[in-house]
Amino acid sequence: MADIELRGVNFSYQKGRQVLHDINISVEHGKTIGLIGANGAGKSTLLKLLVGLITDYEGIIEVLGQPVEKKNLSDIRKKTGYVFQDSDSQLFMSTVYEDVAFGPRNYGYSEEIVQKKVMEALCKVHIENLKDRQIYRMSGGQKKLASIATILSMEPEIVLFDEPTIALDPKNRRNLIGILNSMPETKIIASHDLDMILDTCEETVLLSEGRIVCQGKTKDILKNKELLEKHDMELPLCMQDRRTNE
Amino acid sequence: MAKIDKAIKDIHTADNTSERNNSVHPVSWLLVTIIYIIAVVSFQKYNIAGLAGMVLYILIQCMWHEISIKDMIKRIWPVFLLTVLVGIANPLFDRTVSAGVLSMATLILKGIFCVTASYILFTHMGIRQICYALRILHFPKELVTILLLMHRYLIVLLKELERMQLAYKLRAPGQRGLHFKTWGSFVGLLLLRSIDRAGEVYDSMQLRGFNGTFQVFPERYNTVRSVAYAAVWCIAILALRIFPVFEMMEAAIWRILNLGV
């Protein structure tokens, strides 16, 4: 059984302006799927549907075998982490420790277990030294890693990333790619950063104006210059002919 | 800019300090503060000598918890100002001018004491523990959640304000403050942006299991200390309410001086 299953999903924020059209995606356990598309293609909306931040959709969405409906949201959210595009939206407590502990505490774990989970999550993203750091004193890269730790401390089976490499410098970006690759969870990564998608995802879904244009092996899609350009995207930098820029 | 940044920092620091330093249960703290406020409010409007004795609670708390009185005044002076403005109107409504002035002073003192006691509670407990205490005292969950989220919203609002102000300043060098023509759009946009951001923060909280109550761990609190703290303060406040401390001190000093003579 697939961890994530979407069948014939349609969604519109307001009548007459449909954002997603007939979306069919199946994500097997442990796979990493890239979700690419131009601005406004519907990537973030699709991720929000999976965690029930939007529930008035048409069609079928199942996460870990449970339909995404109000009555199942608590279960689904316990097993599905969502890393926001903007880390400032994700981090709202005063210190890294408090923020990472927020999820486990809400699920009723004792302080001893919470502490263990927090330390494990911080170690996974290599920021255990920032445990007591105040959030407002952190750099963008550190905040992104702390955001991921807030999700990992809940030990989710699925993690959804919305533009994880946005505003990261090359070193932090490389570090993040390493972390993403070391995570065994099922992952969906929505991004414009096609080089990162190439480095982290086995399969990719290309969205354009709310429709799936193409899905398959990442390498096959990302080397198709014509397909990408037709949908307002460009080849990943590593696949571009550098001589044309010189 | 620096002021906003400092305000955000102060809120976080207050949250942090309060999380770490407490072994007294928040319910004890909250109860003592509520009793203090009730005691302050219950003074007759001409009993300024009795009311003045209530300042001892504020002074002792500030000394005990190393709360800077200077910082406290700096942070809550707008509320003080509001209290004074309300009090100033009082002589117009009271029977005679002298009685009006007396009741004005009482009103101002009452306002200042209540605000200061709340400030001490907030700086020492932090919003999370206050809300936890309110829930234990069976305050409606909806109200407590609103209080908690308003506190979070304040931080979000300040952060957005900081960003917008920076963007404005960079494009309006040499201009002091905001031009009045931009006030409307600036405030409108600030509200829209901060509401959007607050929505995202709330989504993020919900996705991590938030159901209206912040979790606090009761095992960290020392029961004996908490009960003792509440008991001692309640007796002290009651004593301050019944006995006009300053009048008694004055009488005692006179007696000593007379004996000396």
Q: What is the string of SSEs of chain A from the N terminus onward?
A: EEEHEEHEHHHHEHEHEEHH
CATH homologous superfamily identity of chain A: P-loop containing nucleotide triphosphate hydrolases
Question: Oligomeric status of the shown chains?
Answer: heterodimer
The share of residues in extended strands of chain B comes to: under 5%
Write a concise synopsis of the structure shown:
Chain A has 246 residues and is α/β, with parallel strands linked by helices. Chain A contains 10 helices and 10 strands.
Account of the protein in words:
The complex is a heterodimer of chains A (246) and B (261). The radius of gyration of chain A is 18 Å and the shape is globular. Chain A has helices at 43-50, 73-79, 87-90, 96-106, 111-124, 140-152, 170-182, 194-200, 218-222, 225-230, and strands at residues 4-14, 17-27, 32-36, 58-63, 66-67, 80-83, 158-162, 186-190, 203-208, 211-217. Chain A has a single domain, classed as P-loop containing nucleotide triphosphate hydrolases (Rossmann fold), CATH 3.40.50.300. In chain A, a hairpin with a 2-residue loop joins strand 4 (58-63) and strand 5. In chain A, the strands form two sheets. Chain A has a six-stranded mixed sheet, sandwiched between helices. Chain A is an alpha/beta fold and 246 residues long. In chain A, helix 5 (111-124) packs across helix 6. Chain A has ten helices and ten strands. Helix content of chain A is 36%, strand content 25%. With 261 residues, chain B is mainly α. Chain B has helices spanning 2-21, 26-41, 48-52, 55-64, 69-88, 90-93, 97-136, 141-171, 183-207, 223-242, 245-260. In chain B, helix 1 packs antiparallel against helix 8 (141-171) and helix 8 packs across helix 9. Classes of the chains: A alpha/beta (246), B mainly alpha (261). Chain A binds chain B through residues 51, 53, 74, 77-78, 81-82, 84, 86, 88-90, 92-95, 98, 102-103, 105-108, 111, 134-136, 150, 154, and chain B through 8-9, 12-13, 15-16, 19, 152, 155, 159, 197, 200-201, 203-211, 215, 217, 219-220.
